[in-house]
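Run log, item B.
One chain of 155 residues. Sequence copied directly from the ordering sheet:
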Amino acid sequence: MSGTTIKKRFFFNVYRLSHFMEKPKSDFPTKDSLITFILNANTQQRIELEFLRDVTREQIEEALMQGIEQNNADSDLSKIKEDIERLSSGFQDEVEKHSTLTLSRLSKKELNVFFNNTLVVETENQALADALWSIWFGKDPIVNTEDLVQNILVN
């Protein structure tokens, strides 16, 4: 595991986010250089979200799009919005506490998305994969990236 952090909204813990990837062969002098590697590497990675409270499918969809828009302001996101809607259609309307969302990046463009261990999206849309990773590793991430990469930076 690369690291883990908690996404908070106001005073509430919304989800626990964990990032997994094999330790890169090279060392990274700074957190930013490691984040750049994570965003651009053609390597297997996984992001796991465990919801720490009940949320609706619409809240997840809205939060994903907000995080993508926040980190891709100069991009045409109309196609990605359709993909996010397709992705979230695999969720239950009410996402219960302890439900899991797993984004498994098999390569730079291959992405599998699982909701409670059930495959909901299998795509080779690199723009979607890049946009999703930007939520947590982009220029304006919605979580503390230091926590997400702490195990790679330390070891």
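Observations after the first pass:
- The chain has five helices and eight strands.
- The chain has a mean pLDDT of 89.
Flagged for discussion on Thursday.
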